[in-house]
Design a protein that fits this description.
- This protein has 9 helices and 9 strands.
- It is an alpha+beta fold.
- The protein has 2 domains: 157 residues, no CATH class; 85 residues.
- The strands form 3 sheets. The protein has a 5-stranded antiparallel sheet.
- The radius of gyration is 21 Å and the shape is globular.
- It binds flavin-adenine dinucleotide.
């Protein structure tokens, strides 16, 4: 394996890449590809409008405009917070659209004059595309490029650090890197959930609202962090609404479920 760079060539037995294979993911049609995209403002407001003890995980009171759209609010004090306008959808917006929504949200809150201390912007892939099929014995896809982002939520940090440790210990046991496998029962649930969100993007708010209304916050987080028991997970799945859409997605996605379950991944050659 040789990597050619502007600072010279580097060689090794195995290469790890975190360059997201945008083209391959966009060109395939089998696996839905949504994005978690957002702009966030770190603000200082004139009025004390934030409850520093209560972050808002997904505030769906914003106009949905046929998508899954919500505000994420992480307060640091009554007058300081990160306010992030987020979508789970296929198409990005113009920057002004995200910013208009944040401005509107703060106005409706009665924030008064607002000082923007910092801005952040992101676009995280949400897909169950089997990234492993791109890799070989010598080129290993890691991070978002390896499908390590949770497809149904875009959660990345915790999973990437967890899978990095697991990959290292997998290799430390003398196992080839390309046989490292991140699939679990949650991969199938993500696949079905993402199919519902992809087909019926405007239902995101009611799907997530039902999830939080019918289960405790701790139960939902345990499920989303993939640390639940099978019986706990089944309870959450059984309470998913609208049930008919989940049933349809199971029926529509059987080929993808089959591929994810039985495809061992990686061409396994140099
Ligand atoms: C503003 C913001 C806030 C976020 N907040 C959260 C959060 O709260 N929780 C969470 O879980 N996730 C969050 N994320 C997402 C998280 O940061 C990413 O999902 C995560 O960093 C992906 O890790 P990675 O290693 O796959 O890729 P990256 O961290 O993007 O690393 C990829 C690396 O590859 C390099 N690279 C890309 N293309 C090339 C090329 N052609 N040649 C050479 N090098 C290349 C890049 O420069 C980069 O260094 C956030 C992202 C952003 C932008």
């Amino acid at each position: 394996m040789v990597v050619k760079t502007s600072k010279g060539d580097f060689s090794g037995e195995i290469g790890f890449t975190s360059i997201f294979p945008q083209k391959q993911v966009e060109e395939q049609m089998a696996f839905p590809y949504l994005k978690q995209h957002f702009i966030g403002w770190f603000v200082r407001t004139e009025n004390a409008v934030f409850d520093a003890e209560t972050p808002l995980f997904m505030d769906f009171r914003v106009q949905q405009r046929n998508n899954t759209r919500f505000m994420y609010v992480l307060p640091f004090s009554p007058k300081e917070a990160l306010v992030e306008y987020t979508l789970f959808s296929e198409t990005l917006l113009e920057d002004e659209e995200y910013e208009w929504e944040i401005d509107q949200y703060l106005r409706e809150m009665g924030a008064g004059s607002v000082q923007i201390l910092e801005r952040e912007k992101g676009n995280i892939p949400m897909t169950c595309f089997p990234f492993k099929q791109l890799q070989s014995r010598r080129l290993i896809y890691i991070g978002s490029a390896g499908g390590w982002t949770k497809a149904s939520t875009g959660f990345a940090f915790a999973r990437i650090s967890q899978f990095t440790k697991q990959l290292v210990s997998h290799m430390a046991k003398g196992k080839p890197a390309h046989t490292f496998d991140i699939r679990s029962r949650y991969t199938i649930y993500d696949l079905i959930f993402l199919d519902v969100l992809h087909r019926r993007n405007h239902l995101g708010s009611s799907i997530f609202s039902a999830m939080f209304q019918k289960n405790s916050f701790a139960e939902v987080l345990t499920f989303l962090n993939e640390t639940g028991t099978i019986s706990g997970d089944l309870k959450i799945i059984a309470r998913s609404r609208p049930r008919i859409e989940f049933v349809k997605s199971v029926l529509f996605s059987w080929k993808q479920i089959f591929r994810v379950l039985f495809f061992s991944g990686g061409r396994g050659r140099v």
